[in-house]
């Protein structure tokens, strides 16, 4: 379904179909731009809750050039969960080893002096906006990530309804309407505000896509997961 079809689906479910000649949202309760923005939210929520968009191929997101002496690197804002990290030879691209995904407090317990040790990276820590290779990196490498992200081209209020389609699988598209119904009925406007309908729509969305994990839960789920059988430190 493209954005125009999604908006039409919402209007049918909300009984908000325009009566104006030629369509449009002139006499509708909710504007197309608001609905488009909420569909953008819905797709992002779905991608996070259901881990729908796995990426190991978009190089601008999953490939990081590591330089000697630098441990911390920006993480693309769309990548919210790293499931695997591999260290490659910077010159040849040859695989060297998988990195153990861990947390700072675990490193502090297992190797208190990790911050000052110069060596080839063996572990990786994901922060909110950055990734960190513990210790002092000894030379140049390529860091290759695999994990889950939000859409590359999010739906916005400016998206063209006819040419814009959610990146998540088409089988999920119709369930995005539940989120938009939730947002629409939550709008603080006496004409449309309806807490009961908003709650019902949110429950339907969460029944399909699941609850939203908080940041701490995501970190706990992904950290300390070995991806190889050798000692990691």
Return the average pLDDT rounded to an integer.
91
Task: Please state the structural category.
Answer: alpha+beta
Beta strand %: 15-25%
How many beta strands in the DSSP annotation?
11
What can be said about the biggest beta sheet?
A: 5 strands, antiparallel
Measure the end-to-end span: 49 Å
Give the helix level as a range of percent.
25-40%
Principal-axes shape call: elongated
How many helical stretches? 7
Contiguous low-pLDDT stretches (5 residues minimum) are: 227-233
Rg over CA atoms, rounded to whole Å, is 22 Å
User: Helix and strand succession?
Assistant: HHEHEEEEEHEEEEEHHH
Break the fold down into its secondary structure elements and pairings.
Elements: H1 3-13, H2 32-50, E1 54-55, H3 59-62, E2 63-66, E3 72-74, E4 79-89, E5 95-98, E6 100-102, H4 104-110, E7 118-119, E8 123-126, E9 130-132, E10 136-137, E11 141-149, H5 176-185, H6 195-209, H7 215-222
Parallel strand pairs: 6-8, 7-10
Antiparallel strand pairs: 1-11, 2-11, 3-9, 4-5, 4-11, 8-9
Helix pairs in contact: 1-2, 1-5, 2-5, 5-6
What can you tell me about this protein's structure?
The protein has helices spanning 3-13, 32-50, 59-62, 104-110, 176-185, 195-209, 215-222; strands at residues 54-55, 63-66, 72-74, 79-89, 95-98, 100-102, 118-119, 123-126, 130-132, 136-137, 141-149. Helix 2 (32-50) crosses helix 5. The termini are far apart. The protein is elongated. A hairpin with a 5-residue loop joins strand 4 (79-89) and strand 5. It is an alpha+beta fold and 233 residues long. Residues 227-233 have low confidence and may be disordered. Helix content is 32%, strand content 20%.
